[in-house]
Amino acid sequence: MAPMRPRPSISKERFPAVFSNFKTQTYHDPSARGVGSHAIRCLDWNPLGTLIASGSADRTLRVWNPDRPNVRYSTELKGHDASIEKVAFNPVKDAELCSLSADGVLKLWDVRTKTCINEIKGLGSAVSLVWHPDGEGIIVGNKTDTLFFIDPAQFKVVAEHAQDVQTNEIAFCWSGKRIFVSTGEGRVKILSYPDLQPVFQCGWEDKPLTLNGHTSSCLSLALQPTARFLASGGSDSIISLWDTKDWLCQRTLIEMTGPVRNISFSWDGMYVVGGSDEGNGLEIAHVDTGVYVHSVKSQTPSPVVAWHPTKYQLAYADFGGLKIIGIDSDRKHNN
């Protein structure tokens, strides 16, 4: 893919005024009639940010053109028989999408042709899905704490790894040599990939280093695009920001209401936001200071959030449907 044109970042001081002037666009899906069975459970942008996929509790899997909010300009991908729990675009192929349903079915789609290229069944009650940064591997995790390693080329499971602790979310480092695993103990494990060995040891205790930042289950993870910070979110309503140089918690964000189900960094890594299935709104924080710079009001809780990969556009779930702030950001960014 062609390299992205660098965009200027918005300073902490300017962000509230600039972002509050951005338009919020609603995407009209006739299936969405408020909260309930249609509720969106996952979102993901493709690498160029020209498409965004949404997966819903009623099995609706849809790929939207963010510039065309009417549903007739979207693509519905049909074939799942259970709630769509995760969607993830291949990080190096703009039109290749994976979707994971609650009944343990993983499907690989070509969104240009609306074709299901391949599928894997029998992954259990699935909860997590992540691509290797080079697009050469996929990891799926389920509620029985088994990690499945999948070869996308053959689209088959090549390894299974049972974990000894409740395993919730998985994230890769950008080199693809390590994974971060959030656990029910409120910790984050740092493991080598693909052999899943602890990367660091606590010298004074002679045991694997884990990041202990939550008083209850750690549910979500996100690595900053610049890789300086790893964010972890817990059922204690806290987002912890870990410095990846010394693995110390630099700050905690405590303005969330309810469990932190999802975390997303802005394209430049300057801002972070969490999603929760409680409360009515989103709180955007400046990463380097922990200062909250903008509040987004919503009609219902917004458990899923996703920043655009190259722009200040924020997608989130509200009232059963998709909304995106900043579709007009290119016109207003430099004003």
From TrEMBL:
Name of this protein: Uncharacterized protein
GTP-binding among keywords: no
Mapped WD repeat ranges: 40-65, 77-119, 211-243
Family note: Belongs to the THOC3 family.
UniProt keyword Nucleotide-binding, yes or no: no
Top-level taxon in the UniProt lineage: Eukaryota
Gene3D superfamilies in the record: YVTN repeat-like/Quinoprotein amine dehydrogenase
UniProtKB keywords: Repeat, WD repeat
InterPro entries associated with the record: Tex1/THOC3, WD40/YVTN_repeat-like_dom_sf, WD40_PAC1, WD40_repeat_CS, WD40_repeat_dom_sf, WD40_rpt
Any one of the GO BP annotations: mRNA export from nucleus
GO CC, alphabetical: THO complex part of transcription export complex
